[in-house]
């Protein structure tokens, strides 16, 4: 069965498809979240080195993963939108940015909560922390550039160039921060976990990561729907939709 | 055409010398503020010097970014550049180089004098100057992308700093790192190689990004 994927690159048909998909992903996110948190807090054993405090990794690690994945996905869609001039891809990129920034902030925040009992300090100028902070700046830059431009098409394209420049820069920034860290004799503490991880811990972390994925997809779709409505408010199908809502 | 752009921008800068001097004095003032705020202990100042000079250079070169395209945008020159048969990438490369000559080179020349204020050794002064010489063109090239993206926007000046400063970080790390390494008696060749790599990569990729940003901003 051949599916015409291009059909869904039209905002109108994507709008209804996304409307059907949001509840699915949202319910999946909630179920996985409950399961992941249950495993994380009740099933997973206490770490013999770090005690109970290690349990923050069930939120911290998925958030850190998502923060990086989402930037790549955002840049991918922004690049597609720039190359093929498709409106929907750019809208998706715009919709991803706030979720990505949220996860970056969450990763930094939970990281510092974890750092206090483990290292005795809220913040260490460790390579990973520093590059996560810079990633947060990149998200903020992307969002504020798009917010400053009134014309949505120009905002899409300008944001796309910035996101792509950022993607080229991320590995450079990451490695320079890492080398800088070793030059500076680093902090005496290490981020590396004890090498073996109980399988329930790993399980909890993976389930939480999946929950974050589902949450990100649901939020992105929801936000894309709002952006579509906002930008297509002059079209016939939106006003039809509006009338349908009003008569219901 | 490339040389013509550089000549023209330099000529314009000479006609408005105060702009160049403002950037330079901003640099001098920022560097001079640090001893006043952290205290005049020479040992501390000596270790801080590379970082302070580099951060001040970053801020100073950013200060003049907004002007890079705005006057050409207002008087229509930029539009002519866009529709000219010459490659836009080459033209904007000329503009970035002119920006570096006007706002980067004075900083490089001033840096040793400021380094003396911080009691740096002669070797460290040389390394500092050389690292700035290699690093400031990268700042102009990356900064031009930000300037092109924010062309004609309200609050463009503040926005440029938000977009561009995170991208400056690698240059900052290895620029000031080179001076610190030489002060610590370690080799600084690796830092210079990396700075050179950044320069070459941005020389190749930045003009393309600047040109497409300008096209988007001018639509």
Structure description:
The complex is a heterodimer of chains A (248) and B (219). Chain A has 248 residues and is mostly helical. Chain A starts with 10 loop residues before the first helix and ends with a helix. With 219 residues, chain B is mostly helical. Chain B has one domain.
Give the helix/strand layout.
The complex is a heterodimer of chains A (248) and B (219).
Chain A: H1 11-43, H2 57-84, H3 87-119, H4 127-148, H5 152-183, H6 199-231, H7 236-247
Helix pairs in contact in A: 1-6, 2-3, 2-5, 2-6, 3-4, 3-5, 3-6, 4-5
Chain B: H1 2-15, H2 17-38, H3 42-63, H4 67-75, H5 77-83, H6 88-117, H7 122-149, H8 156-183, H9 189-218
Helix pairs in contact in B: 1-6, 2-3, 2-6, 3-6, 3-7, 3-8, 6-7, 6-9, 7-8, 7-9, 8-9
What does this entry show, briefly?
Chain A has 7 helices and no strands. Chain A has 248 residues and is mostly helical. The longest helix of chain A has 33 residues, at 11-43.
List keywords for this structure.
heterodimer, A: 248 residues, mainly alpha, globular, B: 219 residues, 9 helices, elongated
Largest sheet of chain B: none
Helix content of chain B: over 70%
Question: What is the 3D shape of chain A?
Answer: globular
Q: Roughly how much helix do the residues of chain A carry, as a percent range?
A: over 70%
Number of domains of chain B: 1
Question: Termini of chain B, distance in Å?
Answer: 24 Å
Order of helices and strands of chain B: HHHHHHHHH
């Amino acid at each position: 069965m051949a599916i015409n994927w291009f059909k869904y690159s039209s905002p109108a048909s994507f709008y209804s498809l996304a409307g059907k998909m949001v509840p699915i992903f949202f319910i999946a996110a909630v179920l996985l979240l409950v399961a992941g948190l249950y495993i994380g807090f009740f099933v997973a054993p206490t770490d013999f080195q770090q005690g109970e405090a290690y349990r923050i990794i069930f939120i911290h690690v998925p958030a850190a993963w998502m923060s990086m994945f989402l930037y790549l996905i955002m840049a991918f869609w922004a690049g597609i939108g720039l190359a093929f001039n498709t409106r929907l891809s750019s809208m998706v990129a715009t919709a991803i940015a706030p979720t990505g920034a949220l996860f970056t902030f969450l990763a930094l925040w939970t990281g510092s909560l974890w750092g206090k009992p483990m290292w005795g300090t809220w913040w260490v100028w460790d390579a990973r922390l520093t590059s996560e902070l810079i990633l947060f700046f990149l998200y903020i830059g992307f969002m504020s550039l798009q917010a400053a431009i009134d014309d949505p098409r120009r905002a899409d394209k300008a944001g796309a160039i910035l996101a792509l420049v950022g993607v080229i820069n991320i590995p450079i920034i990451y490695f320079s921060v890492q080398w800088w860290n070793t030059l500076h004799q680093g902090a005496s503490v290490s981020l590396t976990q004890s090498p073996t991880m109980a399988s329930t811990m790993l399980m909890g972390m993976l389930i939480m990561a999946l929950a974050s994925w589902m949450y990100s997809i649901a939020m992105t779709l929801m936000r894309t729907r709002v952006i579509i409505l906002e930008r297509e408010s002059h079209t016939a199908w939106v006003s039809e939709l509006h009338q349908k809502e009003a008569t219901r | 055409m490339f040389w013509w752009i550089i000549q023209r921008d330099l000529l314009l800068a000479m006609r408005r010398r105060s702009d160049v001097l403002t950037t330079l004095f901003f640099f001098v003032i920022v560097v001079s503020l640090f001893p006043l705020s952290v205290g005049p202990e020479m040992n501390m100042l000596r270790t801080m010097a590379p970082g302070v000079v580099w951060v001040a250079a970053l801020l100073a070169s950013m200060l003049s970014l907004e002007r890079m395209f705005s006057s050409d945008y207002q008087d229509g020159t930029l539009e002519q550049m866009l529709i000219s048969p010459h490659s836009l990438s080459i033209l904007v490369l000329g503009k970035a180089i002119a920006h570096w000559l006007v706002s980067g080179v004075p900083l490089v020349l001033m840096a040793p004098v400021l380094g003396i204020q911080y009691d740096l050794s002669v070797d460290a002064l040389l390394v500092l100057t050389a690292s700035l010489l290699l690093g400031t063109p990268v700042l102009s090239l990356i900064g031009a992308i930000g300037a092109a993206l924010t062309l004609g926007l309200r609050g463009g000046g503040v926005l440029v700093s938000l977009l561009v400063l995170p991208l400056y970080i690698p240059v900052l790390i290895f620029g000031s790192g080179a001076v610190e390494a030489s002060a610590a008696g370690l080799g600084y060749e690796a830092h210079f190689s990396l700075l050179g790599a950044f320069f070459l990569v941005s020389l190749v990729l930045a003009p393309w990004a600047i040109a497409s940003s300008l096209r988007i901003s001018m639509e």
